[in-house]
Amino acid sequence: MILQVVSSIxxxxxxxxxxxxxxxxITDDMMNLITPNDTLIxxxxxVRGNKKRHRLYRKLAGIKGALAAxxxxxxxxxxxxxxxxxxxxxxxxxxxINNLFLMPVLSVTLAMIxxxxxxxxxxxxxxxxxxxxxxxxxxITTSYERCDDIVQAVRENTQYIKPPLREVFRSFEGEATAVxxxxxxxxxxxxxKIDNEIFREWVxxxxxxxxxxxxxxxxxxxxxxxxxxxxxxxxxxxxxxxxRNEYWVMVAMVVGNVPLLYLLNKDWFHTLIDTVPxxxxxxxxxxxxxxxxxLMKKYTKPMEYRR
Length: 307
Fold this sequence. Notes:
The protein contains 13 helices and no strands. The chain is mostly helical. The protein has a domain at 129-219. The relative contact order is 0.07. Residues 46-52 have low confidence and may be disordered.
């Protein structure tokens, strides 16, 4: 069996070399496989932004965009390649331990490891970006209330804004001064450059202020929402960390029962490992752990503002 697995791996490598496949080509093919874009109707919808992308595609596109913003766009291609390798490794491990019930869960779990690593690495970057966004909007709003000119307010404070937000506001300033004289158009374009609901609400309020200057007083309460969300997340951080730790302790107890069973009763251990019902139980336990881990990550992530 091991010889067959090794032969299969070598055959896959030979096929990749024969067809000249590169990590970039594999990445593009994977993205197109998730959300194909072949018809003229699909292309027209993409131009108008009306085509609803697959959720997995949107998630991968978000990771790719975040890596590009941090100057690490090449890591996305490496993550795709590593994910495919680990997916195959999960299948190979399942074959070697002679438990096909574990193959789907183990393959998918291992394939997700590169993206989980990237997501955890980007979480710090996103937290810093939100804190910087709070500072940037606060100082720009203060200047705008004083000078009544959003372009001048951005120009006065660009030097105090840290990257990558600095480039975003510089782009707005350049568009508003050199490309178009329509401030509303420039603001609409600015709105789509940062994926944050409070920021978009702030820009919408700015657009309204171009017609009614008395609405300037509503900008600071919008910025205050960023502070409120940050305070709530700081208060919940300890509680959420405790819930995550308790979950992983329970998972360790479930997985640790397998070697413990070997020490307590070898007959039961071999029944669990070598018989078909025992293998099915292992597969079901792995599936439950996989699903609950996704739900745990979903329900213990920091709060986000939604309109």
